[in-house]
Write a structure and sequence with these properties.
Elements lengths: L5 H6 L5 E3 L8 H9 L4 E4 L5 H14 L4 E6 L5 H10 L4 E5 L7 H6 L3 E6 L2 H9 L5 E4 L5 E2 L5 H11 L4 E4 L5 H9 L4 E4 L1 H4 L8 H9 L5 E4 L7 E4 L2 H11 L4 H8 L2 H6 L24 H21 L3
Parallel strand pairs: 1-9, 2-3, 3-4, 4-5, 5-6, 6-8, 8-9
Antiparallel strand pairs: 7-11, 10-11
Helix pairs in contact: 2-3, 3-4, 8-14, 11-12
Bound molecules: ligand TUI.
Amino acid sequence: MFENNVICKLLNIKYPIFQGGMAWIGTAELASAVSNAGGLGIIGAGHMPPEVLRAEIQKCKGWTDKPFGVNVMLMSPYVKEVMQVVLEERVPVVTTGAGNPGEYVPELKEIGSKVIPVVASVALAKRLVRSGADAVIAEGTESGGHIGEIATMPLIPQVVDAVDVPVIGAGGIGDSRGMAAAFALGASAVQMGSRFVMSEECIAHPNYKKMVLKARDRSTVVTGRTLGHPARVLQNKLTRKFFELESSNAPAEELEKLGVGSLHRATHEGDVENGSVMIGQISGMLNDIKPVKQIIEDIVNGLPQAFQAAEANCK
Ligand code: TUI
């Protein structure tokens, strides 16, 4: 299976499954587990200072001899220094999020890294392919964390039609059915974040995972739309406070203040009422915590059945 898959061939991986590079919880523990299981593990640089990222990359190199990636969050205040570390460490795959990485593409390609930006629109996908991107991740608004406007179902085929590089589908994918659907829309691989939050290897605080276990289909909300950086999170005390302030026309600085340190509060301190519990709209179907290897194998093993079920409707 996947011998002819363009992404598996491009990156030298066994399964066309990326782990989304999540801030604070996309650590070397998770990334190396995903890479060792045959997918592409990705360290989420988030707001990490450059030397912390370097240590994380070196841990990952020690724990896996398979390809792995780093996701550079372009809104980070350290973005330039982080890119420098990625170059010095010769990270095999670099994904980016929350912005346009165009200016960094040439030097990353020069050292042989594969550059695969996350895009939330056709326009940015086209621009980045012209800049030399090796593939793009089309991420729909169903995702957790920082999001774009367009849903995965319309985004994937429109990006696929617009570019001549492979497309990785993301946003709302957490099982074999989702992966089969992304393939049917023209994607060559998938990226999953939320599904890997609910793995044994993910270091997210137990309270975070417990809250996701209890979540349903309508449990997420989007904060930060009026601030220009929308983020999907589980509804809690923090989001209620946020919307209250927003509807009373509180100044933007006051809203921004609520967000400072809020992700770490949830992921590491376990304060899931006053912190940001970032997770995608598939939260209602994340009902177990499994080892990474089992998550990947269950999805891959379920693919034939998912395709057969779809085909049965055409007979
Ligand atoms: O980056 C993500 N998801 C994230 S990053 C994150 S950490 C964070 N913390 C505080 C504030 C903001 C972020 C949590 N979740 N996903 C990739 C992604 N990129 N989703 C959407 C986009 C995107 C949006 C607009 C990419 C490019 C873009 O274009 C901007 C432009 O300049 O054209």
